[in-house]
Write a structure and sequence with these properties.
The complex is a heterotrimer of chains A (about 190), B (about 190) and C (about 250).
Chain A (H helix, E strand, L loop, with lengths): L10 H4 L1 H29 L2 E3 L7 E3 L2 E10 L17 E11 L11 E6 L4 E3 L28 E11 L4 E7 L7 E6 L2
Parallel strand pairs in A: 1-9
Antiparallel strand pairs in A: 2-3, 3-4, 4-7, 5-6, 5-8, 8-9
Chain B lengths: L1 H25 L3 H4 L3 E5 L5 E2 L3 E16 L2 E18 L8 E5 L5 E3 L21 E9 L8 E5 L9 E6 L9 E6 L4 E2 L2
Parallel strand pairs in B: 1-9, 3-10
Antiparallel strand pairs in B: 2-3, 3-4, 4-7, 5-6, 5-8, 7-11, 8-9
Chain C lengths: L11 H13 L2 H17 L13 E3 L3 E3 L3 E11 L13 E11 L5 E2 L5 E4 L11 E4 L8 E2 L5 E9 L8 E6 L3 E4 L6 E4 L11 E10 L39
The chains are: A alpha+beta (about 190), B alpha+beta (about 190), C alpha+beta (about 250).
Protein name (chain B): DUF4352 domain-containing protein
Keywords (chain B): Signal
Keywords (chain A): Membrane, Transmembrane, Transmembrane helix
Chain lengths: ~190, ~190, ~250
């Protein structure tokens, strides 16, 4: 409708509230669009699963607990000679107790990493320890340092950090079972 | 009058189409939209990309590389850069290294020599940096306008940060005629 | 004025506009419109003559521009011995094509295995080369750097039962820089015409036969990729058959 209405109001006057309402509507639209992106991004980061109060996490069909998390000072090269690390490097050993299906094939592969107090992540089998002969820390019974018995075995992973860095948590993920979550053992 | 009005409508439609076309063609190429986020730096200073830090410590150029008993020649020149690189917050490797010349041509590190430091296999832990040398073959005329590019993804460097460090070589013709040797990666810890 | 236009449905506006325009146009005017449209399309290349799809046959030494590369085929030779390369069957022979390749794309590139296809020769064990090496040091070819022409040896294996060709025809693959319809990114890609792809150029080269008994001992090989530093830090990347110095065609 063109021209003034029966009350003599022009187009701008008739639509003034609608125009004002456009601004918050636009803001809401942008926020909603942004929120959905943010939420999608958040969902992309794996979520932490915490163990029960007894320290055991029941996840991916296995029961896992941290048996040891300590600096490793007794590392050996493949020949048996001790490995000397540079002054400012600390090696860490993580031992997990794993209880799972008796059939080794049914035990899922895991990947272990450690997180320091600043939130930095360190990976298993670092270059610095490439000379160390150690089985893969992948949760499989055939890599267990102790003989697997009735579905119970251990898995060992080695890490390096700069000296003075303290480990805050151990992360265990079972990528073949669940890529959206990982088990997080906070160091008490 | 009626014809005039209809022609007017047609003109509006054409103008809208033309405006759409103009916007479409004025928009930069899609590859440009997806380009890496550059993190620029100078030789001697540390550049912090998203997942790694990098510092070019020294740059030299030579007509040939000496690798053990082998001499690798080139029709251009070899650019050799000594790097100090480290992971920032998670295990990281540098998987892409190249030099870009003033004309926009991008020369990747050579694969005639194994360069572990920048080909993805050399995974570094946070706080434990490494140093080593890389070699890039470029035409002699391009040697004076090079920027070193480093990224952590070998296949696709788009939409992630890329370290860009200008290499201070002024003249490719002034490079050493003697073969130069490369320093292998070594831990700085 | 726009408020009077009733948009009745999909295409309603454009339909009423075109119908209105056509109603007004006398048959003569329609012809005029057609001629004008033809003229306009001519401005954008609609009336250009289309080149013959099959390129002419060139002689060795003529550069062929194929988009991201420029290939100059130089010569071909058949031989029994080629450095340390092992034939699948002892009675077979090598067919080595020498060509200078310049990367015209703006970044380092790995050549596709079907860059060159051969005609006029039978009994090849594979249509794509069994190997390719830099002539410079006989190391295995992988990356080529932009605007740094390199002479490359493309190596096929030919059955000993097939006749030795006196000349071969080499087709150089063509790529165009275009938008990928899936990702909208621009790449050097094969032509999107589908079906038969026109080569960038066809080159005929004579083949030299060098089939004397293997007397000369092979020259020293560049071997596996060297690695820098005092310690051998890495395992060689190019495990397996690495071409080594043989007689250059």
């Amino acid at each position: 409708m063109r021209g003034p209405d029966s009350l003599g109001r022009g187009w701008w006057r008739r639509n003034v509230w609608g125009l004002i309402a456009l601004l918050p509507a636009l803001a809401l639209m942008l926020a909603a669009a942004g929120y959905s992106d943010l939420e999608f991004w958040q969902r992309g980061r794996p979520a932490a699963v915490l163990p029960a109060t007894d320290g055991v996490a029941d996840f991916a069909g296995v029961r896992v607990r941290v048996a040891e998390l300590a600096p490793a000072t007794d590392l050996k090269r493949s020949g048996g000679r001790p490995l000397a690390l540079p002054e400012n490097v600390t090696a860490w050993r993580v031992v997990l107790d794993v209880e799972g299906p008796a059939d080794p094939e049914q035990v899922p592969y895991c990947e272990i990493s450690v997180e320091d107090t600043a939130g930095n992540l360190y990976g298993d089998q670092p270059l610095e320890l490439s000379l160390v002969s150690a089985p893969l820390g992948n949760c499989k019974p055939d890599n267990s340092p102790v003989p697997a018995a009735s579905g119970r075995h251990q898995t060992v992973a080695l890490f390096v950090t700069p000296r003075g860095v303290d480990i805050a948590a151990v992360r265990v993920s079972f990528g073949t079972v669940d890529q959206t979550r990982y088990v997080r053992f906070d160091r008490s | 009058m009626k014809l005039l009005r209809r022609l007017g409508y047609a003109a509006f439609v054409l103008a809208a189409l033309a405006a759409g076309q103009a916007i479409q063609s004025a928009e930069p190429n899609f590859n440009h939209n997806l380009r890496p986020f550059p993190v620029a730096g100078e030789v001697g200073t540390e550049v912090a990309a998203r997942t790694f830090t990098a510092q070019v410590q020294l740059v030299r150029c030579a007509a040939a590389l000496r690798i053990g008993d082998t001499i690798l020649d080139t029709q251009g020149v070899w650019i050799v850069a000594k790097l100090r690189v480290g992971a920032r917050f998670k295990p990281t490797s540098i998987a892409y290294a190249a030099a870009r010349d003033g004309a926009g041509r991008v020369y990747q590190t050579t694969d005639r020599v194994t360069l572990n430091l920048v080909t993805g296999g050399h995974v570094m832990q946070p706080g434990l940096p490494y140093e080593g040398e890389i070699a890039i073959e470029v035409p002699t005329a391009a040697a004076g306008s090079l920027t070193l590019l480093l990224a952590d993804n070998s296949i696709d460097q788009r939409m992630d940060s890329m370290a860009e460090i200008r290499l201070p070589i002024s003249d490719g013709a002034a490079c050493s005629a003697e073969p130069t040797t490369l320093l292998a990666p070594k831990a700085l810890s | 004025m726009l408020a009077d236009v009733s948009v009745t449905g999909q295409g309603g506006l454009s339909r009423s506009v075109t119908r209105g325009l056509l109603d007004q146009a006398t048959p003569g005017l329609r012809w005029a419109v057609a001629v004008v449209l033809l003229g306009v399309s001519g401005l954008f290349g609609g009336l250009d003559s289309v080149p013959d799809p099959q390129p002419e046959t060139l002689t060795a030494g003529t550069p062929v521009y194929g988009g991201p590369w420029e290939v100059t085929v130089e010569g071909a030779v058949v031989q029994r011995v080629l450095g340390k390369l092992r034939l699948e069957k002892e009675t077979n022979r090598w067919l080595v094509l020498t060509a200078t390749v310049r990367i015209t794309a703006h970044e380092s590139s790995i050549l596709p295995s079907d860059l060159l296809t051969l005609d006029g020769v039978t009994g090849l064990t594979s249509p794509t080369p069994a190997d390719a090496a830099l002539d410079r040091d006989k190391s295995r070819l992988r990356l080529l750097q932009p605007n740094m022409p390199e002479r490359v040896l493309f190596i096929w294996e030919q059955s000993g039962d097939a006749p030795v060709p006196s000349s071969i025809t080499v087709s150089v693959k063509q790529r165009t820089y275009r938008e990928d319809s899936l990702s909208s990114a621009w790449y050097w890609m094969d032509s999107d015409t589908g079906g038969d792809v026109t080569p960038a150029g066809i080159v005929t080269v004579p083949v030299r036969a060098d089939l004397a008994a293997p007397s000369a001992s092979p020259s020293p090989s560049a071997g596996s990729t060297p690695s820098p530093g005092p310690r051998p830090t890495a395992s060689p990347k190019t495990a397996g058959r690495t071409p080594s110095a043989g007689p250059t065609p």
